[in-house]
Amino acid sequence: MKMYRLMHHQRYVFQNQKLLPLTYTCMRFQIQEGKKIEKHRISNIKSYWFDKYINYIKNYEQVLEKNFPKTMHVYRIFSIGTKDFIQDVKKFLLVMKKQNIDGDGNLTADELRLNYTMRKDLIKIFPVLLISAIPFTNYIIFPLAYYFPRYLLTSHYWTLQQKLDFMLLDHKKRLKHNRPLFRCMQAELNNIKNQTLKLKWSGIIACLGSGTHPNVKDIIACSELFAGPPYSLNSLKRKHTKELLGIYNISTWTPFKRKKLTERAMLIKRMDQAIQKEGGPTTMSNDEIRWALSFRGVSPATMSLESMRNWLEQWFIISNTVEENTVSLLLHSPILLAYNHPTNWILLYT
């Protein structure tokens, strides 16, 4: 009855709003306020559920991590690795463009490294991408890639420990060519006609044979031997060339072997120049200097940062004296500077 009277009263006021303006205004204000309160209440409810949904989405990964840790670990490896891989591909394309315009001389050390590693990475991962494009094969190829990352995936998908382990395994494989290469160098001693150079070089060979390393100045004094017989690239015997390819992890089945070796030597020299131009070894990160040492024939495992820098500085002294006709000296420097290095021997025989 009261409700009926209230409705009747409101109806009367609306019908006579011109006669009762104040009453009409008050009632209209009350109705609008009621609508605002109702709207605000609905908005609060929506905000509450929306916030809960957002929090659920944010914590969903943690829920999956808790319930399916191994699956999430695999997912994270592939998702992060793919992002890094795509990012490096984009950088690689920019480097290639820069290389075509300005040449190799203007590339930074990082760009030279990326230009070298990315070509191999693309060749390595291409079969995985090709097979995974076939319907339903991704259920097979990705688990295989996860369990055999060294052979089927690039370093973008490796953990920090895997990167170190795989680098050392590759380095150990290359070190197996050190002794045969040293024997080849030793065998050419009697073919040196210049007696002064022969005497100096015999001292270097004796130094390496006794378990130490020759002085950098003595090595540079014998650089003439690498411009012609017996140690220039065009003068090397087949076995000597084979072992030299081995320490740089270049396939012995590759055509134009001497050209490949020359290209590798020039790449190393350009990297050396770029590093020095950018401030030298002191400006390099741990990862960069470790890779640089391994690439030049020294195992960086257990080496201190200072000793790595010192060794690289010694390498640069030789590299700076190398010219196009003596690139063979740079290629033989892993033997001259690292043949008896303790980290190499430890890695080789463990």
From TrEMBL:
Query: Superkingdom of the source?
Result: Eukaryota
Q: Which Pfam families match?
A: LETM1_RBD (PF07766)
User: Cellular component terms, GO, for this chain's entry?
Assistant: mitochondrial inner membrane
What membrane topology does the annotation report for this chain?
A: Single-pass membrane protein
UniProt GO molecular function: ribosome binding
InterPro entries, A to Z = LETM1-like_RBD (IPR033122), LETM1/MDM38-like (IPR044202)
Cited PROSITE patterns? LETM1_RBD (PS51758)
Would you tell me the protein name for this molecule?
LETM1 domain-containing protein 1
